[in-house]
Amino acid sequence: MKKDRMETPPLRKRGQLHITETIAVLFIFFVLVFFGLLFYSKYQKISLAEKQEELLGERAMETTLKTLFLPELGCSKGEAEQEDNCIDLMKLEAAQKTFSEHINDYYFGIFSYANITVQELYPDSARSWTLYDKLKTKTLEDGTVVKDWERKEPTYFVVTLRDESQGRVQYRFGYIVVEVYS
């Protein structure tokens, strides 16, 4: 009987040692899993932000291209093809009214939330036309309207402005600014 009692304590200590080792291994395992999940979530967050940035840039370029190829603005001569990167000033001034009248029912589907401005640089740098201006906003409970966008991505594109208002064709130099909102 004494022999059994003497063997029991070392067996108990060995069992306790095995349980302690198992608990330590499990603790280390869960710490590693935790750090792995933390690293993965940070990676996903950064990757998502980069993807959103890329998509915003793509949308800005797409909106710029749509604007450049609008038949409402292009320089054309009868049935001939449009001139590349050219905006007819008479069409531009008429398009401002058309754009403002149909901003929600037609042009919003093309441009979404954006601001499109044409700026003349030469010979008269003071002239500017805002074609489309649809900001992403929200109305608070107190009725205040505030911006509801985090970033805006501007793109600039050099254009020729054709002016036929004085009976002869005169070409001017300018650029188009397209700002899209996220």
Please supply descriptive tags for the structure shown above.
182 residues, alpha+beta, 5-stranded mixed sheet, 7 strands, elongated
> In what order do the strands lie side by side in the largest sheet?
1-6-7-2-3
Radius of gyration: 33 Å
Biggest sheet layout: 5 strands, mixed
Gross morphology: elongated
Q: How many H/I helical runs?
A: 3
Alpha-beta content class: alpha+beta
Distance between the termini: 82 Å
Count the beta strands: 7
List low-confidence stretches: none
What oligomeric assembly is this protein in?
A: single chain
Compressed to H and E, one letter per element, the order equals: HEHHEEEEEE
Q: Helical proportion?
A: 40-55%
Average pLDDT reading: 89
Strand content: 25-35%
Could you explain how this protein is built, in words?
It is a single chain. The protein has 182 residues and is α+β, with helices and mostly antiparallel strands. The chain has a domain at 59-181. It contains three helices and seven strands; from the N terminus they run αβααββββββ. Strands 1-6-7-2-3 form a five-stranded mixed β-sheet. It has a two-stranded antiparallel sheet with strand order 4-5. The model has no long low-confidence stretch (mean pLDDT 89).
Entry summary:
The chain is of the alpha+beta class and 182 residues long. The protein is built from three helices and seven strands. The chain has a domain at 59-181.
Element layout with pairings:
Layout: H1 2-68, E1 86-88, H2 89-101, H3 103-111, E2 114-122, E3 128-134, E4 137-139, E5 145-147, E6 152-163, E7 170-181
